[in-house]
Amino acid sequence: MIIVMAPNSTQADLDNVISKVKSQGLDVHLSQGTSRTIVGVIGDKAAIGQLEMQHLSGVEKTVRITEKYKLVSREFKRNNTVINVGGVEIGGSKPIVMAGPCAVESMEQLMESATAVAKAGAQFLRGGAFKPRTSPYDFQGLAEQGLKMLREAADANGLKVVTEVVDQRSIETVASYADVLQIGARNMQNFQLLKEVGRAGKPVMLKRGLCATIKEWLNAAEYIMSEGCDDVIFCERGIRTYETYTRNTLDLSAVAAIKELSHLPIVVDPSHGTGRRSMVRPMAIAAIAAGADGLIIEVHPHPEVALSDGEQSLTPADFEEVMADIKRVASLLRGED
Amino acid sequence: MIIVMAPNSTQADLDNVISKVKSQGLDVHLSQGTSRTIVGVIGDKAAIGQLEMQHLSGVEKTVRITEKYKLVSREFKRNNTVINVGGVEIGGSKPIVMAGPCAVESMEQLMESATAVAKAGAQFLRGGAFKPRTSPYDFQGLAEQGLKMLREAADANGLKVVTEVVDQRSIETVASYADVLQIGARNMQNFQLLKEVGRAGKPVMLKRGLCATIKEWLNAAEYIMSEGCDDVIFCERGIRTYETYTRNTLDLSAVAAIKELSHLPIVVDPSHGTGRRSMVRPMAIAAIAAGADGLIIEVHPHPEVALSDGEQSLTPADFEEVMADIKRVASLLRGED
Amino acid sequence: MIIVMAPNSTQADLDNVISKVKSQGLDVHLSQGTSRTIVGVIGDKAAIGQLEMQHLSGVEKTVRITEKYKLVSREFKRNNTVINVGGVEIGGSKPIVMAGPCAVESMEQLMESATAVAKAGAQFLRGGAFKPRTSPYDFQGLAEQGLKMLREAADANGLKVVTEVVDQRSIETVASYADVLQIGARNMQNFQLLKEVGRAGKPVMLKRGLCATIKEWLNAAEYIMSEGCDDVIFCERGIRTYETYTRNTLDLSAVAAIKELSHLPIVVDPSHGTGRRSMVRPMAIAAIAAGADGLIIEVHPHPEVALSDGEQSLTPADFEEVMADIKRVASLLRGED
Amino acid sequence: MIIVMAPNSTQADLDNVISKVKSQGLDVHLSQGTSRTIVGVIGDKAAIGQLEMQHLSGVEKTVRITEKYKLVSREFKRNNTVINVGGVEIGGSKPIVMAGPCAVESMEQLMESATAVAKAGAQFLRGGAFKPRTSPYDFQGLAEQGLKMLREAADANGLKVVTEVVDQRSIETVASYADVLQIGARNMQNFQLLKEVGRAGKPVMLKRGLCATIKEWLNAAEYIMSEGCDDVIFCERGIRTYETYTRNTLDLSAVAAIKELSHLPIVVDPSHGTGRRSMVRPMAIAAIAAGADGLIIEVHPHPEVALSDGEQSLTPADFEEVMADIKRVASLLRGED
Question: In chain D, what residues touch A290 (CB-CB under 8 Å)?
Answer without folding.
Answer: 282-283, 285-286, 289
